[in-house]
Amino acid sequence: MLDPRNPILPPRHRAILVAVVENYIATGEPVGSQTIARALARSEVVSSATIRNAMAELAAVGLLEQPHTSAGRIPTARAFRFYVEQLGGSIAPPASRPEIDSSFAGIDSAQRFLERTSHVLALLSSGVGVAITTAGSATDALEHVHFSRLAQGKVLAVVVMTSGLVRDRALTLDVDLDIGALESAAAFLNQNFRGFAIDAIRSELARRLEIERSDYHRLLESVNQLWHKTMPAGDGLRQTVYMEGVANLLGSEANLDQLHAMMAALEEKQRIVDLLTAYVDARQESVRVVFDLEEHAPEMRDLVLIAAPARLAGESHGTVGVIGPKRMQYERAMSAVGYVSQLFNRMLQPPQ
Questions:
Q1: I want to staple 128 with a disulfide (CB 3.0 to 4.6 A). Which of 85, 95, 296, 323 is the partner?
Q2: What CATH number corresponds to the domain at position 39?
Q3: How many domains does the chain have?
């Protein structure tokens, strides 16, 4: 008998469990002993009675369950974890590598890469493709800034960072500025602060305001007002969420109320940020598969997260992943997520 606290599966039990999981993924129906006997026939001949006994033992340790008395067995979340662990060391690059490579052709920034990622992963996995940019910090450096006048006292600010992150924000100003003043303010920031960290710009503007008393001072006041409203202290660059494929969940077995709750939670993008932040460590080297999403978000019950960090030169720039039902093609999804995360570094790495 297997030890329920720490079941070490003999080879035959392992083969039977893997066959149950793969059949259940393919059909969505409880799996019987005769189905498993046919699946294993290519490697060994095992009687249905032997398989039934093994399946009963797997059920006793929490790896299989029987939804109805006369039905076959279905895998538990613990069985899916076991299955993924078996795949973990043998995930090959996806067969669709050429298509993936062509999908990212011409991409030259982290933001554009992550934006495209959600579409690519949704297609490859038939799940929800997600990607988030890493939140900017006080050390993120300014590439350039642009201000556009929307109306009296209203300005659109667009800030581009050297990491590729882009921030746009509609501002309500205390003092109205005309187009010439906005252009002068943007030119001042771009000429004097390109490559500066966020906090350094704030500190230097404050220092210059303190010592200048002239027309230059009036320009600095305009710049200071625009910059502090565009990049308020403690705010930084917010994480951007790219997501595609929520409609793919419509084919899942969840009941209608649960499905609506799942989709509402997914559409609330901050929930996606919280999930990926909670479960994906930017330092991890491999793809992570998470089954217990409901612990962080009850609406995510029966969904699985497959994700990996997107790093460039050892620094995390975001996270890429797939959210889908437990009945997903794990090997295909894991290989796609892993390959895309590696492609991020390979494509965007500056030449030596």
A1: 323
A2: 1.10.10.10
A3: 3
Rounded to whole angstroms, the Cα distance separating 348 from 101 reads 13
Please check whether residue 84 lies inside any domain of the structure: yes
Q: Which DSSP string do the residues of 268-281 spell out, in sequence order?
A: SHHHHHHHHHHH--
Task: Tell me, yes or no, whether 303 lies in a domain.
Answer: yes
- Furthest-apart CA atoms within the chain: distance in Å: 94
Model pLDDT, residue 315: 73
Domain of residue 208: give its range.
142-230
Alpha-carbon distance 298 to 296, whole Å? 7
Q: Is residue 265 part of a domain?
A: yes
Over the stretch 264-322, which tens digit does the pLDDT of each residue have?
Answer: 777 777 778 777 877 777 667 788 999 888 887 788 888 899 999 888 777 777 899 99
Which comes out higher in pLDDT, residue 234 or 312?
312
Residue whose pair of structure tokens reads 């999804």 in the numeric block: 333
Decide if 52 is inside a domain.
Answer: yes
Residue-wise pLDDT for 159-209, tens only, equals: 887 766 667 778 888 888 999 999 999 999 999 999 988 778 888 888 888
Using the structure block, give the residue that is written with the tokens 């340790």.
Answer: 61
Does residue 330 sit in the same domain as residue 312? yes
Show the tokens assigned to 24: 């259940």
Same domain, 245 and 173: no
Residue 293 to residue 274: CA distance in whole angstroms: 11
In whole angstroms, give the CA distance from residue 220 to residue 300.
Answer: 49
Structural contact between residues 93 and 213, judged by C-beta atoms closer than 8 angstroms: no
- pTM to 2 decimal places: 0.69
Count, residues in the chain = 352
Helix (H, G, I), strand (E, B) or coil at 245: coil
